[in-house]
Design goal:
Elements: H1 6-15, E1 25-28, H2 33-41, E2 46-49, H3 54-65, H4 75-86, E3 91-94, H5 98-110, E4 116-118, H6 121-130, E5 135-139, H7 147-156, E6 165-170, H8 175-184, E7 188-191, H9 196-214
Parallel strand pairs: 1-2, 3-4, 3-5, 5-6, 6-7
Length: 215
């Protein structure tokens, strides 16, 4: 970090006279053994490599804080899982941020689904021109082509995905973006950070649309 590194910050925390010293977890993209050893030697309680995977983070919290996670049973998600097994959704996710792609992959895995991932707008457009998808999730801002630009292309050109269920994904939602989204032919907007319930709702709508096309 600027000004003061994580290691130095950890050492200074250790020097404070605290009645309840906090647990310290070092997070770094340098996931070598010596980095872990250096972090633990500086007084860190645990170590996580970037990009941080949610399950790994929860495991560290559980271990360091003595937690016991209780998972709520989602009957509606289980029902959706069974539907997806009978007819898997063909999903394209276009997202240039690696961590967002990993989180999206994890959420899809919980539902028994997988996706084709594109790392920028140009790559997404090539996939759209040559493959068929039931649901296409496009990030609002990407290199080469934005999600809005790709949606307009699908709307105004012959592609195998003219009937695909389009979802825009964005961390920023305002009236202008909402208007652009609807004009481009998107069905819904998925806000970041990802809301799992909304995500499930949109996938279910995409599933219903895909079934209706078959019928």
């Amino acid at each position: 970090m600027p000004s003061l590194s994580g290691l130095e910050t950890c050492k200074r925390i250790q020097q404070l006279d605290l009645q309840l010293p906090p647990k310290i977890i070092m997070v770094t993209a340098n996931a070598f053994a010596e980095d872990r050893e250096q972090s633990l030697a500086a007084g860190c309680d645990d170590f996580l490599a970037k990009p941080v995977i949610l399950n790994q983070l929860l495991e560290v919290f559980e271990s360091q804080l003595g937690l016991d996670w209780l998972y709520q049973h989602r009957a509606e998600t289980d029902a959706l899982h069974k539907r997806f097994i009978s007819k898997p959704l063909r999903i394209l996710v276009a997202e240039d941020n690696e961590i967002c792609r990993l989180l999206m992959e994890q959420n899809l895995k919980e539902l028994g689904l997988s996706a084709t991932f594109a790392e920028d707008g140009q790559q997404a457009l090539q996939l759209i021109l040559h493959s068929v998808f039931d649901c296409i999730i496009l990030d609002y801002k990407m290199p080469h082509k934005t999600g809005i630009e790709i949606a307009h292309y699908i709307k105004n050109h012959e592609t195998p995905n003219s009937q695909s269920y389009l979802v825009l994904m964005s961390a920023l939602i305002n009236d202008e973006i909402k208007a652009d989204t609807m004009n481009a032919g998107f069905k819904n907007i998925l806000t970041k950070p990802l809301d799992f319930d909304c995500f499930v709702e949109f996938l279910e709508a995409a599933y219903v649309q895909s079934i209706s096309k078959i019928e």
